Amino acid sequence: MATSSAVFKSREDHRKQLELEEARKAGLAPAEVDEDGKEINPHIPQFMSSAPWYLNAERPGLKHQRKWKSDPNYTKSWYDRGAKIFQAENYRKGACENCGAMTHDAKSCIERPRKKRAKWTNMHIAPDEKIETFELDYDGKRDRWNGYDASTYARVVERYEATDEARRKYLKEQQLKKLEEKNSKIEGEGGEVSDEGDALKLVESKQMELSKVERRVRTTGGGSTGSVRNLRIREDIAKYLFNLDCNSAYYDPKSRSMREDPLPDADP
């Protein structure tokens, strides 16, 4: 595509232009300025900073790359879901024969087909829906989350929390039931019964075992896989985090090892 800056240059002018571009990239020369007085990044290629010839741009810039046409009629609002405007008491001419609403016909009615329609019974007339039309822009038409209410996700969180609480309660009841059965067997054999505190400690230890963090490991020979416990705990701190001084011992990330202090006798 021809650009406005496509004018004939001699070999000497072309060489000077290349030298100036290199100096600008190296920071030795000031950056080029566009029509609005803003500096142009010297690393931007010429085919982006040069405007097409039909825009009649006198100087290079990025103004032609920005969105210059804006329509004020575009909106980001969304439909008022479930809103009703009016509910009649009697059937009106031209309304839906099934439910009696004036905003749609019987063919597009989403209510269950009645055995006796509202047109004939003149009862239980459905309210009229709120009809809205929006002129959305390009992004608004393709936004899958447009009109989504984020506060409704709190119900999902509450449901999952209730499920987890019920699961923990069920596991605790199962553990207590097993302990009661074990104690009853010990009583039948004439042994001593452990107190309630020991039983609760055992339940807590069982729950801790259920919450162990495990990870899958693959054998080198390509055979069966297994799971091992994650032996690292939160209190473990990597060696390179004890001393964050840049001039101290060097940590090699490739070998995951610490180099020894090259000057052990020097003053730290």
UniProtKB/TrEMBL annotation:
Top-level taxon of the source organism: Eukaryota
Alphabetically ordered keywords of this record: Coiled coil, mRNA processing, mRNA splicing, Nucleus, Spliceosome
Main location: nucleus
Family: Belongs to the SLU7 family.
Keyword Disulfide bond: no
Pre-mRNA-splicing factor SLU7 domain ranges (all copies): 136-267
Stretches assigned to coiled coil: 169-196
Biological role: Involved in pre-mRNA splicing.
Species, as recorded: Gossypium stocksii
Pfam family, one: Slu7
Keyword Nucleus: yes
GO biological process: mRNA splicing, via spliceosome
Stretches for region Disordered: 22-42, 249-268
Protein name: Pre-mRNA-splicing factor SLU7
Annotated GO CC locations: spliceosomal complex
GO molecular function: pre-mRNA 3'-splice site binding
Subunit description: Associated with the spliceosome.
Compartments, record wording: Nucleus
Biased composition (Basic and acidic residues): 253-262
